[in-house]
Amino acid sequence: MSQELTASLNEQMNFEFYSAHVYLAMAAYCSSKSLDGFANFFIVQAEEERFHGMKIYKFLNDRGQRATLAALPEPKNEYDSMLDVFEHGYAHEQQNTKKFYNLADIALNEREHATMYFLKWFIDEQVEEEALFDNIIQKLRRIEKDSNAFYMLDAEFGKRSFTAPAE
Q: Would you say 107 and 119 are in contact if contact means Cβ atoms under 8 Å apart?
């Protein structure tokens, strides 16, 4: 594995840990508004992102490369509304997708087949993540000021949990 690919995988691993940080900040915002279901949604998102970071960490180690951790930037902590929170989450997922595409391009150019295969799982995951956020944004726009529907969505998110996929 080239130094460029190793460095790029480390960068992505750190971005996954940063993503967990971003989602925990979103959860804290939701909690401050007494929206525990929405907070739970983002806590689960944070758990998923940590899982993704550790998946890259393990891959690097399995390939005889060193995982290196970097400092995390401060995430955004204030939002205007739940719609604003999810729009920022969606934009974050879109940014993450681009980062995985760039990483896959490096692996493809280097003909690093093991890494290309490894990254396919993440690219598939990004399709699901973007669809999830887009779907929630559409729901939030539809319900607008319908407080009953809003609180039903909050209750639905309170039931969400994370189970690591089988390897």
A: yes
